[in-house]
Structure formats: C-alpha cells, structure tokens
Amino acid sequence: MTNILISGASIAGTTTAYWLKRHGFDVTVVERAPAIREGGYKVDIRGAALQVVERMGIMDAVRARSTDMRIATHYDARGRKVATMDAALFGGRTGDDVEIMRGDLNELLYDLTRHDVEYVFGDSVTGIAEDGTVAFERSAPRRFDLVVGADGAHSTTRRIAFGEESRYARDLGHYISICTVPNKLGLDREEAVHAAPGRTANVYSTRQDTSAKALFMWSSEPLAYDHRDIDAQKDLLVKAMRGVEWEVPALLESVRDAADFYFDSVTQIHMDHWSKGRVVLVGDAAYCASPASGQGTSLALVGAYVLAGELAKGGGAAGYEREMRPFVEANQALGPANVKGMVIGSRAALWFQLKMIKLLPHLPGRDRMIDRIAGPIHRAANAISLRKYSE
C-alpha cells in the first residue's frame, strides 16, 4: 500500500497527509472548496494533541498564533456585567493547552504539506469501487490503494462506503450557529456572554482581530432544512433567538450580512468500525464528538497521527481502531455533559450558575470547583499514550 487518497483538507485531512508523507506514502488530498478554508472559529489543542503538534515541529508557530483570550464576561438582559471569569477556565483549558483559530491551524498544517503532497481543490469524491478506483465530480477516475475519509461529520466518503448518516448520528438536542460580525462591542480578547433559558449567545474577538465572532447555541427538537439554503438557516436562527435581549437583536441583524455563516445540529457520530474495504475514516467523519465536547480538533490531530503510524508499522486499520477507541469514547462522553452547562434550561439554574461564577474566586474549595469544570476535559484529553512510530 503506497498510494493514498485523503478526502477533505480539514485539520484531520492535512494532519493525516503530513504523517503519511513522512512515513513514505504517496498522498493526494481532494477538497471540495477552492482553497484551504480560512477563518472559522476558535479551537483548543489539549493533552495528547499537544504532543502531536510538538512532533510536527510547529508548536512555536501555534503558540505564536494563539487567541490570547483574557476574560469571559456574562451580561444580563439590560447589558449589566453580572459575572466574570478567566478565559482559560471558561474554555476548560489547563496547563499547556492552547487555543487557536481553526483557519490559522489549518494554514500551518497546509504549509507543512503543500510542497510534498498533491492537493486537488474544487473537486470531490462521488464513488469508490472495490478495486480502489475513485470517481470524482470533475476529475477523471483514479485508482488508490486506500481512501481516507476526512471530510467532516457529514462525510460523503462515509455515506458512500458505510451508508446514510442517520445510521451513525446521535443528536444531542441542540443547534449551533457561528459567523463573523462587526466588533461593535469593542471587545479585546474577551468573550461576552448572555444566556436565557434554553438559549445562549456568545460574542468574542481574539488577538489582532478587528472583527468579532458571534456564536449562538440553543436547545431544539430536530429541524427540517436544506443544508444548501443559507438564508433559510439564518431565518431559523432568528426564530430560535427571538425574544432574547441584551445585544442579541443587533447581532442577528449583522448575521444577515455574514459571508461565513455556519449552522448545524450539535451531533455526534458513533460507529462500530471506522474502516471497510479500501476506506478508513478519521476525525469527525469517524467519531465527531460535537462542538460541545471542545475536543474535536484534538481528536482529529491524534487520530491522524495514530492512523498514519499504524498504517506505516503494519497495524493497519485494526491497530488504529484498537489504539483510538478508548480515547474517542472518553472524549465523546464530554459532549452530552458539557452541553448542559452551555445552554441552561431554566431561570433558576441560570441564577445558580452565575452565582457560582461570582463566588468561585472566594470559595474555600476553589481548586475542587475548578477541577469540576476543567478536570473532565483534561483527563479525557490525556486518555491515550501516544506511541513513537518509526519514521
């Protein structure tokens, strides 16, 4: 096995490309977008994923592009500050954990591989035959020894090889939307948060960013909508957040003009196996933990490293699944638990949460309280011992 196709130039895709090439494979990456995707939202790199970044030699570059967030401030409906906490604690980060914009990380990973890996942009996989012949939307068919699906939670590769998404998707009962908005609040490395029962709005601006990101999350029954109809999705967001006060009405007006609008259910992917025939899945395509876990990027980095290493040393897909399964399960378990703290169901629970945030710096059991917030994420992020595969 020497000739490998990766579907998707995501974090998982570009990282897999790097490690496969380093192990001596011939690698081609096909990406539906016309170029590497820029921007996006902020993501965390924790635990074992930090080791992967270190072994790639880009840790200094990653830290140089960290978001440098300072504080998270909660506001009431009238715009009054009601509670403030350290941004690292708000994001569940401890120790050497680093936060970076998704687009910045992917750019660094792409730069590592662009001269050694064949990238085909503006195209996508439409079929995979048993002998490894891959059909593309625009390019002529080509034969590969292996196809790696790194094309996200709504993976086309997974659908072709394993069947419809509904067989593997586990809805957590919430939706999320993120986009760029003007920084009218004048935020400087600060998260501004307002929560109402069942709905949360968060606006933040990172270091050296003159704009801001608006993030909305809310509880909901499954919604029917066209994934290609962005205007309809914006209408669903406006409807979901109707009646929420603070800066939300103004933010929703800005959303109408957003060119990078993202809208999706908070969903996990659970599969009994991540490989079938000549296809193997990595990252969100195989084991999406949802944005609520805070571990999607770390799972992608670690999964890519382990997959490439196991293929190189002869463990193959079976070795990859054996090494990764406990780590994936530990991190997926974070999603259902975390989402309950991100979107609060009642006014009484909201009052209690804000009270605890205000009291946290003064509580005698402060360290235990912090461990309750960040401890589960830290333990899940370190729930694997990475092998040093021969290189």
TrEMBL record:
Pfam families, per database record: FAD_binding_3
Presence of keyword Oxidoreductase: yes
Please give the Gene3D superfamilies that the UniProt record associates with this protein: D-Amino Acid Oxidase, subunit A, domain 2, FAD/NAD(P)-binding domain
Q: Which residues form the FAD-binding domain?
A: 2-313
Q: Which GO terms describe its molecular function?
A: monooxygenase activity
Keywords, A to Z, come to: Monooxygenase, Oxidoreductase
Matching SUPFAM superfamilies, A to Z? FAD/NAD(P)-binding domain
Protein's UniProt name: FAD-dependent monooxygenase
